[in-house]
Amino acid sequence: MTNVGLVAVSHSAPLAAAARDLALDMGRDAVIVAAGGADGGFGTSAELISAAIEEADGGAGVVVLVDLGSAVMSTEMALEFIDPDMAERTTVVPAPLVEGLVVAAVAAGAGASREDVAREAMGALAAKEADIPYADAAGGAMGAGGVDDDGPDTREWISRTYVVDDPAGLHARPAGALVAAVAPFDAEVRVSHVGNGRGPVVARSMTSLISLGVLEGDEVLVQATGPEAEAALDAVGELAQRGWLAKGEAKPESPIPAHKRQTGSGMEIAVGPALVWNAQPRPELGTEPKNQADAYAEAREAVRTYLSSLGDDPILTLQVGLLDDPAYAGRITTAIDAGKPAQIAVHNATQDTVAEYLDLPTAYLRERSEDVKALGDLLIQALHGLPLGGLAAAIADFGRDPVVVLDSLTPALASEIDPGSVIGILAATGSATGHGALIASAKGIPVITGKEIARDITEGQEVALEPRSGMVYVDPTRAQLHELLRASKEQAKLAKAAREHAHEPAMFDGRQIYVRANVALASDAELGAKNGADGSGLVRTEVLFADWDHRPTVDEQAEVFTQIAEALGTEQPITLRTWDVGADKPVSFFDSEPEDNPFLGVRGIRLMQRIPDALVDQFRAAIRVAQHANIKVMIPMVTTVAEVVWAREMFNVAVEAEGRPDELPQFGMMLETPAALLNVAAFDEKVDFFSVGTNDLIQYMAATDRGNSAVAPVADQVIPLVVDLIADTARKLESPLGICGDLASSEEHVPQLVRAGVASLSVRPGLVPQIKAAIRAIK
Ligand code: PEP
Ligand code: MG
Fold first, then answer.
1. What would the pLDDT profile of 387-428 be if each residue is shown by its tens digit?
2. Of 134, 188, 209, 764, which has the fewest beta carbons less than 10 angstroms from its beta carbon?
3. Ligand 1 within 6 A of 604 CB?
4. pLDDT per position as a tens digit, 331-368
């Protein structure tokens, strides 16, 4: 049988480690694991403690020694996380950390039972107490801080009760504030726990106060006697009103007890009661057009004031900017001028703008429609004179730190939330890259979005969420908490390993599979570089310039392309896709006729055939940048060989116009129509490389509009066929074949594609490390 293991839990990692080392010096055969600190700073972490218990347990059980305050709660939480049998054989002792650990180490090292080790730890102060007789300031021996009860007390005591509302109860910080609050007064003050009967203890002893075991929401009885008894109690009253913060003390950055918010990264497990936030009920849209322009102007200012009051997050600034956006605001004012009621004008303008955003080419851009919708809702609320926001107040009124449960986490609501007063957020709609989610996670709040279950949760129910795996439990059992912890650890391990190797090549079977970043915004290039991307396999030029009001000149394009190349590294390949304008990617500077079926209409290379100089200019910009960077060009929406032959001619025109420089970009094409894929051999000698656009390929193979979620399940069923087709194609081609559609970002399909000979995968910039890891993991 192995020895009993020991765990030292402290708010300080060095302290826990030093206590362990000291104890090991005395009890050399003991197994001691230090579990100190949280997220590189002071604090305690239930995850860390549970891992320490698992490490210390050799089967004979574990004795855990803790320092103070939230260490106790974190340890209790840790016991929920670990295997129930292991929790059964774990004893947490209220023994002094250093002295207790030393004697426990000796006992455990000698093979003592868990009960004996715990008993030893508890008696650790006896020797010291015998050696150092202690007399308190009043002259009486106070033992462990209890009130001296020698003889009958004939003094007159005045009493008041207070509720401790600090999330971690009367732990070190509020207890210290209580000691400081009563110190200036000529009064003796004592405190008892009303609920558990502990006390009274003297109010000038922090450790005695902590020993009362007062938790959040518990009531304490504070009694005082002496000339300034009233004033002392008033001071305690003020302290309670300040939320148990010392005078002048700011609310700590993150007062959430460490057992609830363990690392502050926004990735930790969060468990707490649900505060269900219902947006203000939407009143019926009015129809009376009375002073509608004024009403709208007032509402707009109210929204501006509200959003501006929430801070200067760029996302909020963006929303404020949208209030004055000529297209959005213009739509509203035009409708009002035409006699529409302001609410209807806002409602319609919002719907139209949202519809336009939903047509954008990348999921990221489409998600920006959530911001427009949120802004429209605010304007309509303001038009009805309803108060804006209010979530912060609801959280304050809730009384405990909640998991906020709502339908949609807008940027404004996310900005209202103080990370110090919530445990986590669960939203029924939206995605992880929605702006509300981004703001909240940047504050370190664990957030999960897009979980319909949020709509079934009722106020006060216990909610547990794990952002890494996206798991959510309502009223979780112990086994479910255990499962959450396991999933969290697993995800963290995988993500850490992927990040650590992100900048190394991803090898499969002795060849490097290039993992590149898709770039639609300049920031994507930076993100890709940070994540170790091997250049870019797709620069969506039509998205880069989507908000330009004029067609960018050759110089202007060259400047933007240079920035991207410099961000990703000029030696890395940067694949510029020529204008893929039309259908879901309109730009204002190319005229296109309205079409009944724009996805099947004049888009991509078909549009360029109508404005060849636009394509020549773009090739010229690419050729210019190719003189100092590794540039490739690629043609979208190719169906016939003639289109490629024509594009090559335009390329040659550009080469001439640029004075036939030495360095020329490689010339490639996208495979995204079934016709091109089925006829791929005919294209092979015409291009230097191929890249499969799976987003369009799937929509054309399945006959499912890529933006229509109603037919998404049909599209999903076609994916295996598409993967087989790509794999077959890769096997029979001379030119290298890459993938730049969203399927490249799917870890599930990476093995089949790579095994078939796919040379590169161009993925969402944030996913480069994971896709590299998935390639390395192929057996
Ligand atoms: C594709 O169709 O898969 C592709 C990469 O291009 P886009 O999504 O920009 O149409
Ligand atoms: Mg496409």
1. 888 899 899 999 888 999 999 888 889 888 888 788 899 999
2. 134
3. no
4. 999 999 998 889 999 999 999 888 877 766 556 567 77
Q: What is the largest CA-CA distance in the chain?
A: 108
Give 741 Cα–ligand 1 centroid separation in angstroms. 5
**Domain ranges (residues) in the chain:** 5-131, 158-242, 270-276+390-474, 281-384, 501-777
- Closest atom, ligand 1, to C-alpha of 540: 9
Is the Cβ atom of 466 under 6 angstroms away from ligand 1?
Answer: no
- From the options 3.40.50.510, 3.30.365.10, 3.40.50.970, 2.40.40.20, give the CATH code of 5-131: 3.40.50.510
DSSP 8-state secondary structure symbol assigned to residue 146: B
Q: Is 518 in the pocket of ligand 1 (CB under 6 A)?
A: no
Measured by CA distance, the residue closest to atom 3 of ligand 1 is 693
Query: Please, which pLDDT band fits residue 318 given cuts at 50, 70 and 90?
Result: confident
**What fold does the segment set 270-276+390-474 form as a domain?**
Glucose Oxidase; domain 1 (3.50.30)
Q: Are 743 and 723 contacting, i.e. CB atoms less than 8 angstroms apart?
A: yes
pLDDT greater than 50 at residue 490: yes
CA 519 to ligand 1 center in whole angstroms: 11
435 has catalytic annotation: yes
With a 6 A CB cut-off, is 630 part of the ligand 1 pocket?
no
pLDDT for residue 420:
78
Nearest CA to 692 out of 735, 740, 753, 725 is that of 740
CA nearest ligand 1 atom 6, residue: 693
Ligand 1 near 741 CB (within 6 A): yes
- Identify whether the C-beta of residue 623 lies closer than 8 Å to the C-beta of residue 654: yes
CATH 1.10.10.10 fits 281-384, yes or no: no
Closest atom of ligand 1 to CA, residue 695: 3
CA of 543, closest atom in ligand 1: 9
CATH homologous superfamily of 158-242: HPr-like (3.30.1340.10)
Q: Strand ranges (DSSP E) for 581-704?
A: 631-635, 666-671, 689-692
d(CA 269, CA 97): 27
6 sits in which H/E element? strand 5-10
Mean pLDDT of 481-508: 86
In DSSP notation, 445-490 reads: --EE-S-GGGGG--TT-EEEEETTTTEEEES--HHHHHHHHHHHHH
- Give the residue, by CA position, lying nearest to ligand 1 atom 9: 361
Least confident interval from 632-646, 663-677, 763-777 = 763-777
User: 501-777: what CATH class?
Assistant: alpha beta
The pLDDT assigned to 479 comes to 82
| CB 538 less than 6 A from any atom of ligand 1 | yes
Q: Which of 11, 347, 482, 740 is catalytic?
A: 740
Could you tell me the distance, in angstroms and rounded to a whole number, from the CA of residue 575 to the centre of ligand 1? 13
Q: What is the pTM of this model?
A: 0.56
Handedness of CA 400, 405, 410, 411 (dihedral sign): positive
Residue nearest to atom 1 of ligand 1 (CA): 693
Residue 404 and residue 275 in contact, taking contact as beta carbons nearer than 8 Å: yes
Is the per-residue pLDDT at 554 higher than 60?
yes
Q: Is 696 in the pocket of ligand 1 (CB under 6 A)?
A: yes
- H helix intervals, 171-313: 172-182, 206-211, 229-241, 292-309
Rounded to an integer, the average pLDDT of 370-380 is 88
Helices and strands (H, E) in the chain, number of each type? 32, 23
Give the Å distance between the CA of 75 and the centre of ligand 1.
Answer: 50
In this prediction, residue 13 has a pLDDT band, given cuts at 50, 70 and 90, of: very high
Q: Of these residues, 171, 259, 347, 435, which one is catalytic?
A: 435
Closest ligand 1 atom, residue 693 Cα: 3
- Determine whether 740 is an active site residue: yes
